[in-house]
Amino acid sequence: MRLREVDWRDLATMAALEGEIFPDDAWSEATMWAELAMRPRRAYLVADDGAQGGGLLGYAGLDLAGDVADVMTVAVDPRARGRGLGRALLTGLHDLARDAGCGAVMLEVRADNDSAVGLYRAHGYEVVRTRPGYYRDAAGGPARDALIMRKELDEDD
């Protein structure tokens, strides 16, 4: 597995993976193009299998608009989970934020996404507040809370 900067050729695969992982509120390929166009304020990494033309295993993005960076997304192909890809992508985002002079990173996550919340807690994120009913269910089910989490960046994170 290797991490690299996202390339426009990755966007169709990212959009397909996005729809699989986040079916209720997936970003479209057009939204991903818009995110890529916002560089250098936005920074995106992909994890692939390292082979020539290798398969995309996950991606993550960051907004670098101030002294606190915001995680835009972290997504790992369900077939590749349990291999440390989420951890590697998150660490890559921390490195990008630190290199940009940010002292902290914030993110928002569905409160019922136990694996993501566990990943973030394991990396030092703490809940700073909850947004009740923030995530709406496309099928009309109950809305889900969002957790706003923050991590202070240290030199050795």
Secondary-structure element pattern, one letter each: EHHEEEHEHEE
State mean pLDDT (0 to 100 scale). Answer: 91
Question: How many domains comprise the coordinates?
Answer: 1
- What is the radius of gyration computed over CA atoms, rounded to a whole number of angstroms? 15 Å
> Beta-strand percentage?
25-35%
CATH superfamily: Gcn5-related N-acetyltransferase (GNAT)
**CATH overall fold name:** Aminopeptidase
Strand order of the largest sheet: 1-2-3-4-5-7-6
- Per DSSP E runs of 2 or more residues, the count of β-strands stands at 7
CATH architecture: 3-Layer(aba) Sandwich
Poorly predicted regions: none
Helix coverage percent of residues? 25-40%
CATH class: Alpha Beta
Number of helices: 4
> Tell me, what's the shape?
globular
Structural class determined from secondary elements: alpha+beta
Query: In this structure, how is the largest beta sheet organized?
Result: 7 strands, mixed
| N-to-C span | 20 Å
